[in-house]
Structures are given as C-alpha cells and as structure tokens.
Amino acid sequence: MTETYRIALAGNPNTGKSTLFNALTGLKQHTGNWAGKTVSLAEGTLSHRGTVYRLIDLPGTYSIFSNSRDEEVARNYIVFEKPDVTLVVVDATSLERNLNLALQILEMTQNVIICINLMDEAEKRGISINERLLTRRLGVPVIKISARNKTGFPMLLDTIERLAEGKLVCEPARMTYDKDIETKIASLEPLVADLVEDRISSRWVALRLLDGDESLLDELKSRLKVKEGSA
Amino acid sequence: MDETNYITLFEGKNGDFIQITSMDIEGVMRRRLLDLGFVPGAVVEVVRKSPLGDPIAFRVSQTTIALRREESSKIQGELMNRD
Q: Which Pfam families match (chain B) (predicted)?
C-alpha cells in the first residue's frame, strides 16, 4: 500500500487555482466564488511515481485572517488539519497583491510551495519573474507554471514529492515586526507553546492573539477541549 | 508642497492618483483594507463615482475595489496628479 500525502491548494480568487486542481486531478470541479456558494472543500487524487496524493482545494481568499467563512475554512484547514504540503497559487500578473496571502501562509506553516500560475499571460504582457531570487528571499520553493497549458508540471510534481517525503526542508522567511510587537510576542510565545505544544506555530498564534483574533481563540478553545476530553 | 495636496480618498475626483499616507480605521476593517491593497505608500486611482457619489470605485494594485464613504473618508493620502 502506498502512502498518501495531503496537499492543500490555497490562493487568491481568480488565480487559476481550480484550473490547476482540475488539471492535476482530472476532476471537473465547478469554479466560482460568489456569495451564497457553499463553502466546501473539493477533493481529488493524483498519483505521481507510485505515490498517491490527495488534493484539497481551499476557498479562494485575499487573506487568511478569517473575516469571512471562506477564510476561516482555509485557515482552519492549514493550521489544524496540517496538510503535508500547502501549495499557494499566485497570479503571475499580479504578484504584489497575491504575495500578501502567501506571506500570511508562510507565517502559519512550514511546508509551502509558491506556485506562480498564469505565466503564459504574464509573458504576453512582458512580465518576467526571477523565481530563483524569490525562492531565496522567501525560503520556500517557487515554481512557475501555466495550469491552462499544463506547463511546469513535472517540476511542480517533483517538488511536491520531495517536500512531502521530507527530502526538501523549507525555511520560510520570518517577518520581523517592530520592537514593541516583538517584545510582546516573546512574552506570549512560551505561554502559547505550553498550550498548543508543537501542533501549531506558537509565534503565529501569539501574533493572532495580539491582533485580537477572537475567531481563532474560539477555534483553539473548542479544539483543545476536544483533545483534553478525548485524552 | 501645499497642505491642500493631502485629501481623503472620498474627496478624490475621477482620474486622481492618491498615495495613501494613513488610515483612521482599526480592527477587522483595517485588516480587510490592508489585505485588499489599501496600504500606506500604495498609489490608488479614483476610477469612478456612483451617481450619488457613494460608493467610489478605486484601482489599487491592479484590481478595482469600491469603498463606501464610511471607509474612504477615513483614508488619507497625497494627491499626485493635480497642481
């Protein structure tokens, strides 16, 4: 029996995330992200060199600080369900906007691949992207693809494989905040670490608490309670 | 530099480019605006106003986003195109 890894797809709306999902899994998933559309997670499988990967298509969001149900679903999946790899799909023609979400995810979890999609469109517009420099600066693999034309897939799949199997270790660039905030993080982090142990990044939880993220606090309370109850 | 160069996004006219300097908004709405690209230093274009002047559509980091007066009147910036 081959091992199964879970790969979560995150990204802004309209970055071709679902196109990539469909291209990789062969599923015809309904795309669109309008109000009223049920927030549910599409799942599909893909096999690469004898290993089966389960792909989970998270809702497209600009942020992951749970201002909406979509963002909460995406955040909870990444933080609490802990996929083996989180693939952040970004739009090559609008990197500045898209990297906001990517940086937020880099603070939450370690095994991240930044997948720059719509490279065909970017090239048409004369945009060139130095993915090696981005990889160095961000500390995680950055891969250029076009989901529409299915280019860049071999590199993407190999990187997913190496990351899932632990042959590649990410060291996401850490955002340093101003002195006040860093001091507060330093005093909160050990207390948080006692509670969440190594299940969740204690630095990230400390930051969210400083930001007054009550939705995360509620989520933590209910999840920690369940854990205690079942122990 | 004239002081009148500083206006709120709400006071912008169609075609104006305004570089955001500060935002008097806190909490979840501030976070939301930051996520959408309304960050200090960003240049925002006033794309068009609704018939009644509210909401106003802005172009920010290659996307068009409409804000109500409630928010746009609390975002200050420097007018870059008018003299």
A: FeoA
Q: Identify the pLDDT of residue B52.
A: 86
Closest partner residue to B31 (CB to CB) among A65, A94, A96 is A65
| Residue A34 scores a pLDDT above 60 | no
Q: Does A137 touch chain B (CB under 8 A)?
A: no
Beta strands A51-57 and A112-117: pairing type?
unpaired
- d(CA B71, CA B49) in angstroms, rounded, equals 15
Q: Which of B9, B74, B76 is nearest to B40 (CA)?
A: B76
Same domain, A28 and A112: yes
Name the residue among B1, B2, B16 with its Cα closest to residue B79: B16
Write down the pLDDT at residue A230.
54
CB within 8 Å: A93 and B62: yes
- Could you report the predicted ipTM of this complex, rounded to two decimals? 0.73
CA distance B13 to chain A (A): 24
Find the helix packing angle between A214-230 and A179-196, rounded to 10°.
20
- Mark whether A133 and A43 lie in a shared domain: yes
SS3 A206: helix
**Helix, strand, coil share (%) of chain A residues, nearest 5:** 45, 15, 35
Report the distance separating Cα A197 and Cα A219, nearest Å.
Answer: 16
Q: Are residues A20 and A68 in the same domain?
A: yes
- The parent domain of residue A202 ranges over 179-230
- State which residue of chain A sits closest to B36, comparing Cα positions: A62
pLDDT digits (tens, 9 = 90+) for A175-199: 899 999 999 999 999 999 998 887 8
Whether pTM exceeds 0.90: no
Question: Is B61–A211 a contact, with Cβ atoms under 8 angstroms apart?
Answer: no
In tens, the pLDDT along A81-101 reads: 999 999 999 999 999 889 999
Sheet of strand A85-91, all strands in order from the earlier edge strand to the far edge: A42-48, A51-57, A4-11, A85-91, A112-117, A142-144
Please state the rounded mean pLDDT for residues A35-40. Answer: 54
